[in-house]
Design goal:
Blueprint: E1 2-6, E2 11-17, E3 23-30, H1 32-36, H2 43-64, E4 74-80, H3 84-100, E5 105-109, H4 110-116, E6 129-134, E7 139-146, E8 149-155, H5 161-171, H6 178-186, H7 209-220, H8 224-256, E9 262-265, H9 272-277, E10 282-283, H10 294-299
Parallel strand pairs: 1-4, 4-5, 6-9, 9-10
Antiparallel strand pairs: 1-2, 2-3, 6-7, 7-8
Helix pairs in contact: 2-3, 5-6, 5-7, 5-8, 6-8, 7-8
The chain binds adenosine-5'-triphosphate and magnesium ion.
Length: about 325
């Protein structure tokens, strides 16, 4: 049994996962409402909240799984990329638990964690496949040849797709985090009402900053009443442009690859239009798209454990290695 711990951003999460990928518990304490008034995550606020929540969240993960620390064989924890102060809370908790129990510790890369959300539960996806990882901090196309490793085919040159959703939501006066809000409002709007540009970038990369600017100009041209009336159309058209860019590039990557199969992970994989646009793709289960610790425990099945007590000097890292 693997105890997973994730504190890279504003979710404090712990999970217990079996060696075969069975999710025995997955507890996620979101701090979103705490950061909402600032319109984004405040790193220092996040670190302090992780400190308050990490103990209770781990305890709840154990209780929900009907397990105790005696049942845990290894501890898995996100080491990066993410907010360093936030990561250090989870990493320190993981080290303390592993040290106290003389257990091995598996440091996990958060991006590998997102991909490993496909290796959980009953409908596990087998490589090879081309994977779109679209989250709040990243937008990547990955060639996944085997579990535990991948090769980058492309990435965003500026904003991540989730960031584009969040910034667009802010321009439209919607709450934070904005992806789910736009997803909901877009259902009431006309996706063809506005034509927003899909950036033409060479190779298999993405760009979303021009799209955000286009929305800014569209919103600026409207008075308060008009914005109120057109908000759903703007949301639907903006979402359509992001989905087009993501689905289009994923298809191009798949056509160039021998893998054949396609998959989507990360917070944006929860988007209903993206799911609809890619009926042949494997998606991570909805609850495991945004940050969680089950995916971190899952990734630990395919990474090397560090024996007690060699991991005590491990440090966190902020950006992708
Ligand atoms: N239904 C949805 N439609 C579109 N975007 C969504 C939806 N649900 C969540 N998101 C977006 O997903 C992002 C959060 O995803 P996730 O938790 O994987 O990202 P992160 O951990 O912040 O970033 P990273 O994984 O790159 O470090 C946010 O930007 C949010 O707006
Ligand atoms: Mg994430």
């Amino acid at each position: 049994m693997i105890l997973g711990i994730e504190t890279s951003c504003d979710e404090t999460a712990a999970a217990l996962v079996g060696g075969d990928g069975t999710v025995l518990s997955s507890i996620v304490a979101s701090q979103a409402s705490l950061h909402a008034r600032y319109g984004g995550v405040v790193p220092e606020v996040a670190s302090r909240r992780h400190l308050e929540l990490i103990g209770p969240v781990i305890r709840e993960a154990l209780e929900t799984a009907g397990a105790g620390l005696d049942d845990v064989d290894r501890v898995a924890v996100t080491r990066g990329p993410g907010l360093v102060g936030a990561l250090l809370v989870g990493l320190s908790a993981a080290k303390a638990l592993a040290w106290a129990r003389r257990l091995p510790l598996v440091p996990v890369d958060h991006l590998h964690g997102h991909v490993a959300s496909l290796y959980l539960g009953d409908a596990q996806v087998e490589p090879p496949f081309v994977c779109l990882l679209a989250s709040g901090g990243h937008t990547l196309l990955l060639d996944v040849g085997e579990r535990g490793s991948f090769r980058r085919l492309g990435s965003t040159l500026d904003d991540a797709a989730g960031e584009a959703f969040d910034k667009g939501a802010r321009l439209l006066g919607l709450g934070y985090p904005g992806g789910a809000e736009i997803d909901r409002l877009a259902r009431e709007g006309d996706p063809e009402a506005y034509t927003f540009p899909v950036a033409r970038v060479a190779g298999l990369d993405f760009s979303f900053s021009g799209l955000k600017t286009a929305l800014l100009y569209a919103v600026r041209g409207l008075d308060a009443d008009e914005l109120e009336r057109r908000r759903a159309d703007l949301a639907a058209s903006y979402q359509r442009a992001i989905v087009r860019a993501l689905a289009g590039r994923l298809r191009e990557a798949a056509a160039r690859s021998r893998a054949g199969r396609i998959a989507v992970v990360g917070g944006v994989a929860a988007n209903s239009e993206l799911r609809g646009a890619l009926p042949d793709a494997a998606f991570a289960p909805l609850a495991l798209c945004t940050d969680n610790a089950a995916m971190i425990a899952s990734a630990a099945r395919y990474a090397d454990p560090i024996p007690y007590p060699d991991y005590l000097a491990l440090d966190a890292y902020a950006s992708a290695a």
